[in-house]
Design goal:
Elements: H1 6-23, E1 46-50, E2 54-56, E3 62-64, E4 69-75, H2 81-86, E5 88-95, E6 98-101, E7 104-106, E8 109-116, E9 119-126, E10 139-148, H3 155-166
Antiparallel strand pairs: 1-10, 2-10, 3-4, 4-9, 5-6, 5-10, 7-8, 8-9
């Protein structure tokens, strides 16, 4: 055997040995005893409302020199005082055929949002603050509003949850 083939043969032998060693390993799963069934869950304490999809045209974006970006304001009646004070909001933008959650970053550009009663504020900024970005292309957006439920959870359910959390 020549010296140039020796390292290759050693590598092949080590590789085959490891392949045999790991191929024969099998994890044995031991099933524990079945527990008592839990009590039924109570009603949740939040409601989710998905809005209709809406579109923001490229021409809707206004220049904002202070943030080196563009801003768009959308009137949105679904954002009530209750949503602002006790709820939350999630925004999504359509990219190709998929939906991406905001804030969304692509390179040096970020699309983010804010809201108050009756309005959504979109912002498209260059985080490097070098030059003013062109307005984004016409894009579809979607809003998911989350508010508290008007039906509180029952007292019994609350006691079960606290008891289980302490175990």
């Amino acid at each position: 055997m020549t010296k140039s083939k020796l390292p290759l043969m050693l590598f092949a032998m080590v590789f085959c040995s490891l392949a045999l060693l790991f191929a024969s390993c099998k994890k044995e799963e031991i099933q524990g005893p079945k527990g008592e069934p839990g009590s039924p869950g109570g009603g949740g304490n939040s409601n989710m409302t998905a809005s209709e999809t809406f579109t923001v045209a490229s021409s809707d974006w206004l220049t904002d020199s202070a943030s080196f970006g563009r801003k768009a304001t959308i009137n949105f009646a679904g954002i009530t005082k209750e949503v602002v004070e006790k709820g939350s909001l999630k925004m999504y933008m359509k990219i190709g055929t998929a939906w991406a959650e905001l804030p969304y970053t692509q390179g040096d550009f970020v699309t983010q949002y804010g809201f108050d009663e009756g309005h959504i504020y979109l912002e498209f900024i260059n985080i490097e603050q070098i030059g003013m970005p062109s307005p984004p292309v016409t894009t579809s957006y979607r809003v998911v509003i989350i508010t508290q439920s008007s039906k509180p959870a029952s007292a019994n359910t609350d006691k079960v949850l606290v008891t289980n959390a302490l175990k």
